Amino acid sequence: MLKRIEDLVRGECPDLPSLLDGLPMGVALLDGGGRILMLNKALEALTGYSRDEVRGLPCRHVLRSRACIQGCPHGREDGPDKGIETDCINRHHRKIPVRITPVRVRDGENRPVCILDIVEDLTALREIESRLSQATGQGQIIGRSQAMQKILNLVPVIAQHDSPVLITGETGTGKDLLAESVHKASHRSREPFIRFSCGPMPSELLDAELFGRIQAAEGELKPGRFQQAHGGTLYLSEIADLPLPHQSRLVQFLDEGTVLPVGATKPVRVNARLMVSTAESPERLVREGRLREDLFHRISAIRLHLPRLKDRGEDLGFLLHHFMSQYAARFKKQITGISPRALRIVSEHDFPGNVRELRNIMEFAAMVCPGDTIRTGHLPGHLVDLAGTGPAPRPAEKARKAPRKSAEGN
Amino acid sequence: MLIAIARDEVAPRFDLTKEALLLSISESGEIVQRKSFLLADASGDELCDLALSRDVGTIVCGGIEDEYFHYLRWKRIEVIDSVMGPLERVIPRLAAGELKAGDILFDRAGESA
Question: Which CATH number covers residue A267?
Fold first, then answer.
């Protein structure tokens, strides 16, 4: 059979090469041993090799993808033909983000004939993704402090597993972003990331929102958040706001992998990773009877705690400049710095709203600032007022600061 | 001379190389020293460090990213890249001074050695 494929490629049937050449994405036709039988034109352009140069060579040397080297996708004989996002290096030293989808071609008796590697160039998509993420500041959690580095180093490790994750931390510390980062680093990243806030809601509505509902008239399932997250991740924020009966249904999901939609008689199987968060101490929530103990033990298999901004040391300055650049770009301003006095006011603030509050402050300042430097007058009024109510500077300090104040033009 | 290797062939990617072979070749083309290095992690940076610390004059590798390629050239290291083939064929050609970037020394499927 393989001989027939080779004959088709070599020209017995001239339609196969022209058919593959007509496809907009790269295609490599491989034999069972992973050697190249043919590249189509799109893949010739991507790799920089012509089909004649590489015919008969091991594909790992031609595609040179990370996936080829760190865990060849062709090795998973019985696995589904699933795309892998990876990168490759072409002949011209260019690193290109790609998605490789191996398709096993079988004959009528289900015997393997050859493999088609579909290679999609993701450069344009990655650029858009990066631009959007910079513009919105969403989907990335950053930090240089030791505490944050420790957490960020754990993200790729945690992402490899499907165990539930419990994220704790005060409001505004980045729990949602951390959950999304774990999802994005996981093998579920191409599947949905569904976020649901467990705020107060009538019980029946909450049931339908979370677990879905069988429509009385059509008998069809209107998907809830669990069904929407199928294959991906379901993130429930403020888990303690979820009523106890609903919490017990989460326990059932974690034990059996099923949920019971409203109006259904049989549970429905859902493949979703569960992540939850709370701004309060989960142990205290258990003691107060607001979080079921059995649920707590199940969701705390992996537990991450995000520190307060005030406890993140150097991150305050780092994030301040990060948000300043981000909002300067968004508002199309040429802001390059912040005056020492404005910086002192921001640095001395307590930040009960943590990173979210800092972000809001810098958004306001960048919006108001007409020049290239953020000054005291560009900060939100309450921040300056709070700073004004603090301890008065010593006379020597006051004298030293006076000329600077006038130089700042405040 | 340093060859980025994976098992018994030139590693397909410089930045994902875990093993390197260091060769000292005399002017007459004789291999006078041969030493293998295992890196703690697959890393282009570590490989660059190894090459610089051992005063390597030539690196042989498969695919290499622009930044490493230009960095090594800037450090006056010759880079013979995009080489595909088993070491048993690459080394003699390298020793003879005949190895070029882009050389393909594998047997093709269906061809004899």
Answer: 3.40.50.300
pLDDT digits (tens, 9 = 90+) for A250-278: 999 999 999 999 988 888 888 999 999 99
For the cut 70, the answer to whether the pLDDT of residue A391 exceeds it is no
CA dihedral A129, A131, A135, A138 (to 10 degrees): 30
Chain A touched by B100 (CB under 8 Å): no
Residues A220 and A303 in one domain: yes
Domain count within chain A: 3
Of A254, A287, A307, which marks where a domain is finished?
A307
Q: Which of B13, B14, B67, B84 to mutate to test the interface with A (most CBs of A within 10 A)?
A: B13
State residue A187's pLDDT score.
Answer: 84
- Average pLDDT over chain B, rounded to whole? 89
Q: Which of A92-101, A106-115, A307-316, B90-99 is the least confident region?
A: A106-115
Residues of A in contact with B110 (CB under 8 A): 6, 56
Assess whether A227 and A258 both reside in one domain: yes
Across residues A295-305, what is the average pLDDT? 93
Note whether residue A130 is domain-resident: no
Long-range contacts from A35-39, C-beta under 8 angstroms, 24+ separation? A35/A59, A35/B108, A35/B109, A36/A62, A37/A5, A37/A6, A37/A9, A37/A114, A38/A9
Q: Could you give the 3-state DSSP secondary structure of residue A280?
A: coil
Q: Which of B16, B65, B111 sits opposite A69 (nearest CB)?
A: B16
Share of chain A above pLDDT 90, in %: 46
CATH label, B2-95, candidates 3.30.420.130, 2.60.120.10, 3.40.50.970, 3.30.499.10:
3.30.420.130
Q: Residue A401 pLDDT > 50, yes or no?
A: no
**Domain, as residue range, for A342:** 312-408
What does the alpha-carbon distance between residue A148 and residue B64 come to, in Å, rounded to a whole number?
32
Which has more pLDDT, A20 or B110?
A20
Q: Does residue A177 sit within a domain?
A: yes
Task: Taking each helix axis as running N to C, give the angle between helix A395-408 and helix A340-348, from 0 to 180 degrees, rounded to the nearest 10.
Answer: 120
With CB atoms and an 8 Å threshold, state whether B13 touches A64: yes
